[in-house]
From TrEMBL:
This is GNAT family N-acetyltransferase. It comes from the Bacteria. PROSITE patterns: GNAT. It holds the Pfam family Acetyltransf_3. Residues 7-168 form the N-acetyltransferase domain.
Length: 171
C-alpha cells in the first residue's frame, strides 16, 4: 500500500468493482478518462479488473482516510526507454476539489521516484481538463507538447497535453 496525507492506495479486489462503477460512471468523469464511447458498464470494469495483474501495468484503488473508495491510479514503465513511467488517475466527481488528486499524484510520484528509481514520469491529459492540468502543474509537471486531435469524445477530436516530471524536479 502507498500512503499519502489524505489517501492511501491499495491493490483492487473484486468487491471494488461495484463501487468503482458507481464512482467513475458519471458523465463528467467519463469525459476525460479515455473511454471514447462515453458508456462505462460493470462488464467493462470487470474486464479491466482482469488486466490488473499484467506485469507492465499496475492499477491501485484510491481510498480516503475515512475509507471512501474514490477512484484509481495506474502506472506503467514505458517500453521505449528504461526508468520512464506513464501515469493516469480517475477520481469520482463528488471527490473533486478536495485535494485528493494532488495527494494521490504526489504519493504515486514519490513511490515511483524513490522505490522504482524512475528517472521521469509522464502523462497525457485532454487540453480542456483544466482542473487536472492545474493539479499536475501544482505537483511539478511541466508542459512538453501538444498532440493534436489525439482524443475523441462526443463526436469531436480534442488535443492532449503531454506533461513530464524529472526526478530532480520532484520536491
Amino acid at each position: 500500500m502507498l500512503y499519502g496525507e489524505k489517501v492511501y492506495m491499495r491493490e483492487p479486489v473484486r468487491e471494488d468493482i461495484e463501487e468503482l462503477y458507481d464512482t467513475c460512471a458519471d458523465e463528467d468523469v467519463l469525459k476525460y478518462n479515455g473511454l471514447s464511447t462515453g458508456v462505462m458498464t460493470k462488464e467493462y470494469i470487470n474486464s479491466q479488473f482482469r488486466h490488473l495483474t499484467k506485469p507492465n501495468k499496475k492499477e491501485l484503488v484510491i481510498v480516503t482516510n475515512s475509507s471512501d473508495l474514490i477512484g484509481y491510479v495506474y502506472y506503467k514503465e514505458n517500453s521505449y526507454t528504461r526508468d520512464v513511467y506513464s501515469i493516469g488517475i480517475t477520481i469520482g466527481k463528488k471527490f473533486w476539489n478536495k485535494g485528493y488528486g494532488f495527494d494521490s499524484i504526489r504519493t504515486l510520484c514519490s513511490y515511483l521516484f524513490n522505490s522504482k528509481k524512475a528517472h521521469k514520469i509522464e502523462l497525457e491529459v485532454v487540453c480542456q481538463n483544466k482542473r487536472a492540468i492545474n493539479c499536475y502543474r501544482k505537483c511539478g509537471f511541466k508542459d512538453e507538447g501538444i498532440r493534436r486531435s489525439k482524443y475523441y469524445y462526443d463526436g469531436e477530436y480534442l488535443d492532449t497535453l503531454v506533461m513530464g516530471l524529472l526526478r530532480e524536479e520532484f520536491i
